[in-house]
Amino acid sequence: MFRILSVLVFVVFHGASAQLCIPNPVANLTLDVNYTLYWQPSTNCPETLYLIYIHIEDDLQFIYNTEQPYLDVDFLPACERFYFEVRAFSNSELSDGVRLGAYIPAPSDADLRISWADVSTQEGSTFLRWQVTEKYAHCARSFRVVIYDSDNLPRDVYTERNFLFINNLVPCGQYQFSVRAIYNLATEGPIHFISYSIPGANSSLPVLERVNTTATSVSLSWTLPSYSENRCRITSVVIDALPFLHDIFPVVDSPERPLFVTTLSPLEPDSFYVLRVTVVNTEGTSDTFPIGVQTLPN
């Protein structure tokens, strides 16, 4: 079903000797942000007018005619996709049609704020979702999400959905997310900010860099797990060789996490020890790092 708002069909008779003129197709069919459909006119025939067919998908909705190479379509609902076909008409002859599919622009005063957003953690991923103000929610073609970490280093993500799964965020990290809708091709709506603290996780294992031994001591130099991988505060390194020793080495944590040295003393000369090393942070204890060491003879 479609409505024909106005159609002008005319036939001009020039007599038996008249030359048949078939108009050339129009060119450069465009819809601008001011709701005007315009095109480069057909100029090869006299008294040319233009028929404009407006479709939703394959359903014809309107037919218009005009003598001008443009048509205002501000009567169409904002942010809906329409298909426009323009044909030149002259001397009862129609040109081939030129088609354009386009979204009707959102009004300049459209309220495209993010009305709400929240963040949660699901199976190790961070789940961010949001909603645009209801009246114009369908106008958002995509969304721009900017992720700021504790160092304020931004990372942009674009999505056509109103949610986003974000992987590889750092445990105990402080993040801020900004979300905004994108409409009318590249126009962006207001920014909505939301802050979130990533849940903590136990530390991973340290890396053993050096071992120095004497007859009565063993020094172990460690690279602690990187701050960029886990920002939960490390409180201590624990070394067990039960029943011979149980040493706790307090850690003054910092983002740099420099080489950390643990020295076991006094030990028996010429003795073999099986050590179990763990890292303790504010969330708990890491897995065990086993290592065997041998002291020197006297």
From TrEMBL:
The keyword Signal applies. Residues 1-18 form the signal peptide. The keyword Signal applies. It comes from the Eukaryota. Keywords: Signal. Residues 201-298 form the Fibronectin type-III domain. This is Fibronectin type-III domain-containing protein. The lineage of its organism: Eukaryota, Metazoa, Ecdysozoa, Arthropoda, Hexapoda.
